[in-house]
Amino acid sequence: MTAKKEKGTGVTFGGVLRLVVFLGIGFFFIYWFLLKLDDGQKASIWESFTGANWWWVAATMVCSLLSHLMRALRWRLLFKPIGHVPTLNHTFGSVVVAYLGNLAFPRAGEVMRCATLRTSEGIAMEKSLGTVVTERIIDTLAFGLVVVIGLLAMFGKAKDWLYDTLAERFSNLPNMAMIVGALVVLAALALLFYKLFWKRLLHIKLFKKIDDMVRNMVDGVKSILHLGPRATALFVVYSIAIYLLYIMGGLIIFQALPETQWLGFRAAFVVYLFGSVGMTFSQGGIGVYPVLVQLALDIYGIPMEVGTACGWLLWGSQQAVVIAVGAAYLVYFSVKKKRIKN
């Protein structure tokens, strides 16, 4: 009983180790980046950062808040098939508390997300966790689709930069038609191999895990179709809105700095792709996210100092929303839990 309770908290040795590693990566990138700068460059970054139009930064924070709201509305749809309709207030609060928890410990937020909904709505943890797993599967597939779209329809200067960067390492590069053709052939061969040998491969532990993961993804996608036509359409609309708001956050933050105001949706899309990679490398993207945003803006000829300031403004505005709103809802759920006990 005790061991099970400890597992439910999400604070384990593995969780602490991951936290230390991911935070270490983030702080290393900050140290490594600052080490390369001279005093003049540091002063220029600080000047760009402090000279930003903070009304646009506030608008970016509103955009980030709206993306969390869309996520809450989408998550709420998944409870209808299991006989629950949680309030939007509690669903939204659970989402931002989850983001806050993930800043402290990797994946701890998912447990906190379900725990707060159990406190406020009386929904069993295992039911909430099932909806979270489904949502994560959809997110993984959706993000993969966004990345593929980004690579296949890479815009203007970003496409030239990627091609030039690869050309420095490889003398002959295949064109896009050859790449797509090769991917289709590889996918067909992989499917054929799977159909012919999957029963034998299931005895291999690694393949068994891969097979289970793929099946779970398929089941997760199928579960969306069981919501009903209207709810399924809303789920798709909310999903699209989430990613558009992510991109819009970058587009809005461009207006905060004079040097980036001319950038448009294409650049914001590229910044989103680069920033998303940064979020996976360190805890909450600390250190890595701003560096990758600066690298993305370098494609468009934005000076390093301005790009770095823009990256920190974008990352900081997102985390400020999570910390402020998430902490407020954490207090709200704590008070509500005490009232229920009393």
Please characterize this protein's 3D structure.
The protein is mainly alpha-helical and 342 residues long. The chain contains 14 helices and no strands. α3 packs across α14 (304-341), α4 packs across α5 (88-104) and α4 packs across α14 (304-341). It is globular and about 55 Å long. The two termini are 25 Å apart.
Tell me the layout of helices and strands.
Blueprint: H1 2-9, H2 13-35, H3 39-50, H4 54-77, H5 88-104, H6 108-121, H7 125-152, H8 156-167, H9 176-201, H10 205-225, H11 229-254, H12 265-281, H13 288-298, H14 304-341
Helix pairs in contact: 3-14, 4-5, 4-11, 4-14, 5-6, 5-14, 6-7, 7-10, 11-12, 12-13, 13-14
Distance between the termini: 25 Å
Rg result = 22 Å
Main sheet overview: none
Number of helices: 14
* Net shape: globular
String of helices and strands: HHHHHHHHHHHHHH
**Poorly predicted runs of 5 or more residues:** 1-11
- Provide the residue-averaged pLDDT: 76
Compute the number of strand runs: 0
Bin the strand percentage.
under 5%
Structural class: mainly alpha
How helical, in percent, are the residues? over 70%
Defining traits:
globular; 342 residues; 0% strand; disordered N terminus; single chain; mainly alpha
Summarize the structure.
This protein is mostly helical and 342 residues long.
